[in-house]
Every structure is written in C-alpha cells, then in structure tokens.
Automatic annotation (TrEMBL):
Coiled-coil blocks: none
Protein name, UniProt field: N-acetylglutaminylglutamine synthetase
Keyword Cytoplasm assigned: no
NCBIfam families: trio_acet_GNAT
Gene: ngg
Domain N-acetyltransferase residues, every copy: 124-277
Record's keyword annotation contains tRNA-binding: no
Keywords linked to the UniProt accession: ATP-binding, Nucleotide-binding
C-alpha cells in the first residue's frame, strides 16, 4: 500500500469520525433543551386540527399550566396529542390524574441527506386525496386499523390546506384506495423556525395484496417535504411496534429524545391502564368486542383467551361469549348451523334459493351423474369451519374423489353441491337487522417476472398474517396446486410480470381471502333473504353466506350460515357496536343518546 492510499484512508476515517461526533453532539443538545429558542420564535400556543384530534405543539406554549389547559379542551371521541414536550415530568405533575406520557418513540428523517428509493411501486401508485370517495376510503382504512375516524367532509374541506398533506395509494386495477398517510408542514402550521415536518396516520388496508405500500407512502411524503425545503420529517411510533420501527430505520430514520403527552380517555385507555390479564392472547375477533365493551364501561373477564371466551357484565346482567357467539344463541340454533345439510333444509323451507346437493358415497355412478348434470361442483365437509377442506369449481371425477378424501379428514359426512359461479357474499345479521355486507375474494398473486409462484404465495401469506393478527394465511397444499394447474402453472414456475393468478378458489378469510365492504350497495332482495334465513334459524347473531352474480343484483344461492361470524374486517360498519347494543341496550353512548331523546 503506497503513502497516498494510506493518507486517503486516514482522511476518510477522520471525516467519518467527525460526522459521528457531530451527530452525537447534536443529539445531546436536543436531549437537554426544553424547547425552541430562536430570535424569531414560532407562533404562540400553536395547534392544528387533524380531524381525529389536534396536534398541540408544546414548544410554542409559555408554561405547563397553559399546555394542560389546551389538553383539557379535547373534543369528545377525539385524541389530542401534545408533541415535543420538553419537560414531561413537569407537565405530568400539573395534572397526573388527567394526562399521561405516551409510550411512543419519536423518529426523525434528515431530509437534507435523504435519498429517494430506486424501486418503483408495482400494481399501485401514490397521489393526493382528491375526492369525498377518497375520504370515505381513508376512513375505512382507519377503522380497519383501530384508528380514530375522521368526518369525510373534514378531509374534503382541508384538501387545499397548505399545512396538511393527504396522500393515498391507489390500486391500478381496481381503483381502490389501499393506503394513506398524512403530513404536517410545521413551517406553514406555526412558522416553525426549525423548518420541520411530521408524518401521521400511516395506514395500509389489511386486505391489500401489494408489497411495499407503507414504504412507498413514507418515501413520497418525505420527497414532498424535501421539495418544499423542510429540514426534517418526524414521526411517532409505539415502542413495541417492531415491524414499523424496522421499516423506519431501514429508510434512514433515527430515534430522537422527543416526548408526547395525551389525555386519559377511553380511546387511549390501553396505553395507560393496566391491561386485561391474557388480553394479548385473544384473537382479533374477540379483541374487537372486548375493546368496544371496555369503551362503554362494560366489565370484561377473559375466561379462556386461547379459545376466545370472555364474560361481559353490566347493570346486573352477565353474558358469557365466545367471540360473537353468546348465551343468547340457543343450542338448537347452533346445531342447525353446525350441520350444513340441516341448515340448507331449514332455509329452503323458509323460501330461500339453495343449490342442488348430494351426500358423497361409494356410488360412483350417482357421483358421475351429478357431476355431468352440473358441470362444476363444490365439495365440503358437512361439519367444519374456516374453509377447511372446501374445494370449489371441481370439474373432473378424479378431482372430486380427491376432494372427498380430504374432506373426510375433517368430517365423515361430505357434501357435494352444484357450483354457482359468482362472488362470495357474507351478510352479518344482528338482532334480525343487516349490519354489514361484504364480498369475500380468494387470494391472488401478481407476478414480477423474477419470483416463483411459491415465493409469491409465501410473501402474500406473511402480509395477510401480519394484517389479521395471524388469523389469515394461505396454505400451500393440494388445493393450491390444483388451482395453479387450472392456469397451467406449478409452484416453482416464475410468474411473468403483471400476470395475476388465483391460488385458491375458496374465498374464506382464514385461507388467505380478502373481504371488501359492499353494505351501501347490496341489493334489498339479498338483505331480505339473509334476514329471512336468520329468522328461520331463530338466531340473533349470524353470518349468512350467499353466492351472487354481483351484490347489486338480486340473484343468489344460499351457501351456509355461521353461528359465530367474525365481526372484524367489516370496517367501517359498526359490527361490534351493534353486538354490544344487542347484549346491553343501555350501555355506553347509546344510553346517553337515548336519555337525550336522540334515538
């Protein structure tokens, strides 16, 4: 090694060490300061309304008492956040019974050194929010992620607000909004001398099938603020959200010692109150109901978390539940739903349209005749749930025999039905009223020209599991291989870029299907049929499944009734609220509205 090379290496090492020392010095400075001290300070007592609550910029308040007074002005059903609190211990001492220190980390992206990503999004694009339909879609995503919803007109009236930027991700094929992020420009919000900005409400539709939506939204917002001349972009993330923290660190965000304070209210309760014992072991369907009960002041006792059992008590009344199945559902109604053949007979006598059906036997001649008559059939166990061993669209005798053998591993009695081509529609009926209607679609993968079908399925399965708390995954089994063969594909084939392929025929959520709300457009005849089925079974909470040509037309065939329908994933419909209304009609806000004569 020559002297020139050594000198170059020493110089590079010196510059690197100097840069590290500078960053450490700046970080120490940020941790010691209690607010912004500039000759030209920001506006005093700066707040900005974000629809779900206000961002209260603590560094612009003169003292802690004034900041606490601002937090006390929080509107009902909103979540205000005091950010950049310099001395949180002093602020908490002002009102320890009313406010708490948010258990979130603050991360910062230095925009002067940020470099845009090279990878372009596949199957979606990012744009600004431009319509009230966009606003409703954003609210749906907020609801699916347990976030505070915003009045759609708020988004629309603030679309030209220079301080607030709303970006959405749109699916190129369907046109659906599948992700959203909000940005706040501190310079325009309160003349921030530090020229900062911040990111809020990053949310991706749990039904979205594309990879990289969240990362793309973060990058686009960062590029937007960098083009405006902002110095940095901050964000707040819960300390235990390891997946999000890993994404932000990958993009170049670094943690800074900044703190946030919030009010103690029903929305924030899980952040400051002692958690229910075994709460984390509940699945999303049980947790949705438990959360709604706690918001209403209904006492919750988790009796078996792994099974989804809990007891709700209010006003001297106690009801034991397993997710949406409660003591109000009779054993007879449950037995009817448990056996698909019995369910079919009950609803057929009530006047519903049902598919032709036979019980699988060793009579191959009868099986061939049924298959020849209908062309395509469905094979499913007479008893079973979550789509296990259900095979759809079988057209050959060998396929049917294989499916019957698989179904018999779930239940000795196997049913064969005529296959009705169309979409799988779930209607949730509570107290004999429609609460939600949703189309369930089977999982699809989209090729990129480099990745095998197997890897694409595994990647989509991981995303579905992450979005549903592990409830939805895509099995790679004989049914998956059969569906691929229908498209002349095998698991280890590389799928060409842009080609979309169904990897299962059944649209069940537990086997990777996605669910899409159609409550506002479902045909009245379908609603009538679902309610008629619920009354025939005499069941207060039920999921009625139809196959339909389209949810906007009256044609249907009845498939089955689920006595324990999952109430999650039907956002923005108030499924958990209506379930609690059924169990405890005078609980929560409903009781308050009733007392005021607003019902």
């Amino acid at each position: 090694m020559n002297m020139s090379t050594k000198a170059t290496e020493r110089a590079q090492r010196f510059r690197s060490e100097k840069a590290v020392a500078h960053r450490l010095k700046r970080k120490r400075f940020e941790s010691l300061r209690s607010g912004i001290t500039h000759e030209e300070g920001p506006e005093n007592s700066a707040c900005i309304d974000c629809g779900w609550g206000r961002l209260i910029f603590a560094q612009t308040f003169d003292d802690s008492a004034e900041l606490v007074a601002a937090l006390r002005e929080e509107a009902p059903e909103h979540r205000d956040i005091a950010v950049y609190v310099g001395d949180p211990h002093v602020l908490l001492a002002e009102a320890p019974q009313e406010i708490f220190l948010d258990p979130s980390h603050t991360f910062r992206l230095e925009l002067s050194t940020y470099r845009s990503g090279r990878r372009q999004p596949k199957g979606f694009f990012v744009r600004r929010l431009t319509s009230e339909a966009d606003a409703r879609a954003v609210n749906r995503i907020y609801s699916s992620r347990g976030m505070v919803p915003v009045r759609p007109d708020f988004f629309w009236t603030n679309r030209d607000n220079r301080a607030i930027t709303y970006l959405v991700a749109e699916d190129e094929q369907s046109g659906e909004v599948i992700g959203t992020v909000t940005g706040i420009d501190h310079m325009r919000a309160f003349s921030d001398p530090e020229q900062g900005s911040s990111l809020w409400c990053l949310a991706v539709d749990p039904q979205a099938r594309h990879a990289g939506i969240g990362e793309t939204l973060v990058r686009r917002l960062g590029e937007h603020f960098k083009a405006r001349g902002n110095a940095f972009m901050d964000l707040s993330v819960l300390h235990d959200n390891a997946q999000a923290i890993a994404l932000y660190e990958k993009l170049g965000f670094r943690r800074i010692p900044a703190f946030s304070v919030k009010r103690k209210n029903s929305i924030n309760e899980r952040l400051y109150a002692s958690p229910l014992e075994a709460y984390d072991a509940l699945n999303p369907y049980a947790r949705l109901i438990v959360d709604e009960a706690r918001r209403r002041g209904v006492h919750v006792e988790i009796t078996d978390a792994e099974g989804g059992f809990f007891r709700l008590s209010h006003g001297g009344r106690s009801v034991h539940c397993r997710e949406s199945l409660s003591e109000m559902t009779s054993g007879v109604a449950m037995s009817i739903c448990d056996d698909k053949a019995v369910t079919r007979r009950v609803v057929e006598r009530a006047g519903l349209i049902v598919p032709e059906q036979m019980t699988a036997s060793d009579d191959e001649k009868a099986l061939c005749a049924f298959l020849e008559q209908h062309g395509r059939v469905v094979v499913k166990p007479a008893r079973g749930e979550q789509g296990r061993a259900v095979a759809v669209g079988l057209s050959s005798l060998d396929e049917v025999k294989t499916a019957i053998q698989a179904a018999r591993e779930v239940c000795d009695r196997v049913l064969i039905e005529a296959c009705f081509e169309g979409e799988d529609l779930r209607l949730v009926v509570i107290d004999f009223k429609l609460v939600a209607a949703a189309v369930r679609r089977p999982p699809h993968v989209v090729g990129d020209g480099r990745t095998t079908v197997r890897a694409l399925i595994e990647r989509l399965s991981r995303r579905r599991a992450a979005a549903t708390g592990g409830e939805s995954t895509i099995p790679i089994d004989g049914e998956t291989e059969r569906c691929l063969q229908m498209s002349d594909l095998m698991l280890d084939d590389v799928l060409e870029e842009g080609r979309e392929v169904a990897v299962r025929k059944a649209a069940n959520l537990h086997t990777g299907g996605s669910i899409h709300d159609v409550t506002e457009i479902v045909h009245p005849r379908l609603v009538e049929a679902a309610i008629k089925a619920a009354r025939a079974i005499d069941i207060p909470v039920v999921g009625i499944d139809f196959m339909v040509k389209t949810p906007t037309e009256p044609d249907y065939v009845f498939i089955e009734a689920n006595e324990r329908p999952g109430l999650a994933n039907h956002e923005p419909q108030p499924t958990a609220e209506r379930f609690l209304d059924l169990l405890f009609p005078l609980s929560g806000h409903r009781a308050a509205r009733n007392a005021l004569g607003k019902l």
